[in-house]
Amino acid sequence: MRRLLVVSLAALLLATTARAQAPAPAAKAPPPAAPAPVEVKATGTPGKAAATRTEKITATVKAVDVAARTVTLQGKTGEPQTFKVGPEVKRLDEFAAGDTIVVEYEQGLVLEFQPAGSETVPPTAVATGARAGKDQAPGAAAAAGVQATVTVTAIDAAKRLVTFQGPAGNSYQVKAGPKIKLEKLKVGDRLLATYVEAVALRLEKPKK
Predict the structure, then answer these.
(1) For residue 58, which of 35, 78, 36, 76 has the smallest C-alpha distance?
(2) Hey, where are the domains in the chain?
């Protein structure tokens, strides 16, 4: 399921890279975005914890229509799917059936303690995008994220689980790493949460 998810994210990048370069909708607070609570670890800075999750998969190009700007991809499982390629990929004519597309997907979450009296940060979107240079294999990359103040609503010290709620009312849960001083955190504390997703695509030609 996660592999299919990453392939879908890659397709989203290809189809909507232009949107990734503009502020994303800021209706939701930054989620850990994982089926199980992600583990946040101490960063060395007091009151700051972070987590990252990465995945790398490959898909095979089955067909390319340069005029229509579509690419049909086949993962290791599932049926081939055809996607509309966005303007970020400038060298579509270099894509060919049999090529391999490498998809690298990364999620990042940073939580920073906000002392009492700190200003509440409303959901604020951040996004970047880039494409491969002329001396590199065709590809594209995009990152989009959101930052906002969240509030701790529950702490399970035994399981080291922390639940927090964002401005939209949604709740998310993370697991505190062994070096985090969980006893210093209490219900009602506020954290500045920054969540970023990044997807990068790279084209690999088959070796002759």
Answers:
(1) 76
(2) 2-204
